[in-house]
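We emphasize that the prediction below concerns an isolated chain of 984 residues; any contacts that depend on oligomerization or on bound cofactors are therefore not represented. The input was used exactly as deposited, without trimming of termini.
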Amino acid sequence: MAPAFGQDGAQAAAQSAAQASTGPAAQDAAGNVADPTAPATVVVKGIRASMQSTLNLKRNSDGIVDGIVADDIGKFPDTNLAESLQRISGVSIDRNRGEGAQVTVRGVGPDLNMVLLNGRQMPTSNLGDLAGRAFDFSNLASEAVSQIQVYKSSRADTPPGGIGATLNIMTARPLELGNMASIGGKMVYDTSNDNLPKEDAAKRSYTPEVSGIYSTTWADGMFGVSVSASYQERNLGVNQAQITNGWKGPYTATQTGVTGVIPLPGAPGSQNITNRPDGSDVYSVPQNISYFMRGSQRQRTNGQLTFQFRPNKDLTTTLDYTYSLNKVQTKYHELSAWFNHGPSVSSWTDGPVAAPIFYQENVANQDIAMNGGDFATKSENKSIGFNTQWKVSNDLRLTFDAHHSTAVSQKDSPFGSNNDLATVSFSRGNTRVLFDNEMPVLSIDGADFNRAPMQVTGSWFQDGYQRMEIDQAQAGGRLKLWEASELNFGLSLTNVKNRSAFQQVQSDSWGGATSPADYPQSMFRADSLGQYFDKLGGHDNPALFQQIHTFNFAEMRQRVSDATGKPALYLPSLANPDYDRRTTEKSRALYFQINTEWDTAMPMHTGLGVRYEKTDVLSTALSQTVAGVNWVAQNELPFVFSGKEFTSLKGKYHHFLPSLDWDMNVRDDFKVRASYGWTIGRPRYDQIQGGTNINPTGNINYGTGTRGNPALEPVKSKNLDLSAEWYYGRQSTVSLGLFHKSLSNYAGQSVNMESSPSVTTPVGGAYWNAALASGCINTDTTCIRNYIFRNFNGQPGVVRGAPNAAGNETGTIAGIAGNPAVQYQITSFVNEKSANVKGAEVNWQHMFGDTGFGIQANYTYVKSNLSFDNAGSGNQFALVGLSDSANVIGIYENDKWSIRAAYNWRDEFLTSVTDQAGPNPQYVEPYGQVDLSIGYNLTKNLTLQFEGINLNDETQRVHGRNKMMVLSATQGGPRYMLGARYKF
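Result of the prediction step, given as a token string:
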């Protein structure tokens, strides 16, 4: 039968799993011990117990449900919950720092999957995406988790938001565990930390991990308390070759007058183009090229305290507190080159989407940038909840659950949540990038660090903040109506508050804030680039520019602070944020569901339910008033803001969400089922922000900004699921599932150009036009700036600085009266898009008799009618995260050994419809990873463990419209863990 709400059913399933893994002497729900004189039964433990519990969960649930159950308390199948979830058919993960962080289910992206903790909606925060709703699993350790349930079909009794799936994380309870304790420790060795510059690497690659759980009951099972805790350190490195700012375009072969287009036939420079894109082709050019070496140190602390009181067998109350803290310190160095799209030499692939095989710009004394960063963040989650379950009579059961939960992510360093110091040598000559390798290969002519010493030329320091708070109360019941029917009912009140804020302080003198004399060259250490990319094709290409210079970030920051006399410039603070979004969503819900058992020739079960959900939205945002714009570098036009004010907008919506579940036992071991239901997924927070935000820096062509729409409707999905399941053994099954989702009300991006009513730009103004008349061309902004500074210094808006080391003028050129109005590219959102997703899942789980060997395998096929048109232009809507996936897991277990070898594969998928340059796709290429875990029972209480993650040392690559248009190529490294666990 369906539970009153997610909490009730989840506890029952968790209790079943715990009993399955602890043997015949386990306590039942009332705390009673099984009769030792009862007939002997086969005791299943370890991996096989987990497989059997998971199988029972799938078999006995309403609708389409999968899950993962812990092998034993304190021992989840993987070290990361997301890594475990990817073993389930239809579930794919997005990785961050080499481990799972967010999940995509059946082609539906992370923002549209709901995560519950013991049936409660959980808040989330993520500085990498201040506007998202996706839960970050990397914040949670797995030691206290007893199981995860994945509801793939809609349910009337769970909070909406899980169009892909609702994932319920279950933790252990003391009255289920009884008296027990265990403690474990591991030594973690992350090989990726060994492949970093010494300034970025942690001092040691070996880090500790400890965890423990303790549970006790007393007064004949009336009281119970449990406590669990874990602490993990991890030192790691991630090295990445990137086209960081994306691919400009797409352009057509006949397009002119736009920065980035290649010369037309017969125009100057056209003779330098090989295999020019023809008239029907589109093409793009890279904005820049970067190589990052990032080292991170993470400390993750998790804990949970649970108290239970059961005065009699009919009433159970639970009070629990859950805490997690994830702290990450990151240092990095970067080698990069920026393209200004002047005179170029290039060779191209064939169309219809043409990509450069190589792209070269002919320049002299431009900057070779070697940036560095040093920042830290922390994410803290807290949740306190109360639950009571009361069996009023044999026909009526009531439940109540309430919780207050928060998630906060913020900086953990005075240098901010992200930062960058730009150090350069002005000795870059002709610059070429080859794109026919796994990673892009940069070549630079004429580099001379003696003639043009390294110096600091610019910086930015960021402070990001996000806080989500959820207050939720849920009440429900189950009432037996007739002999074979039951009414489930309930209501819930949910209040979600989300705030995200951001500030960036920036030094804009990218042409040379100070002089080389301010920076002793002993502050820089010469190093070789290719060694840090040894797993990527192209790292050993003789054409690769190898010279990099690293430095101590704190010392260099202090040096530039002293040289400029502006120490406060490098300490970001949210006292004066660039934007501040605050959204409140108040939801009220009521649901009913009638479950009926049908005594037919083939026994059937039906569940017919409906949920009514009403939400009021209040969205407030800090909007800045633009007072002017300054042209400070070739393509940098930061805006001048004169003030800020909060503006608020409101929205509301309501939905009836029906659901129907049906299953039939064709035979005792063969079941078929069907489910139909409606679900919704709420819009992202940037889509419903309360005002217009103009980004701090514009470019030569326009500024950019966003405007929210709090009246957006949620995405609605109508879901049909069919399944056939054959349970031919206690731990063996094979199943086939088919699904179809019809999605509507997707928020499409509406991008429009708007003119400022009061702010002007120097681009296209009188000074600009005079420079063009003197012989400069539109795309040569260095020439234009030099002319303006040398001929109009002291005139309104023109403030000339000292020339930089390359001899080019520096300073600011402001928009003045009579100049053209600033253009803004404003992105907003409307409900206008729809899509269909369909697919199939095949699962096989088999134990080979009593040999101890077993196998788990699954494959998921997903398809949609809405994909990105690589040959198209402009803004496009396409489903992200859509991909096939597969798992193969080999198992061996006996009284001493417990071995699991897993291969997880995910096919290519679209991860975004934009890159930094504009409306261009980002495709993550196929990825396959091998993991291994080995356990050895030294005694009945002591187990030794070995785990290996990414044993095949897989790399990851992302490309744009053409596979030659690489966006990033990333390498990390295998991770090994050796540990022990002792059970008391």
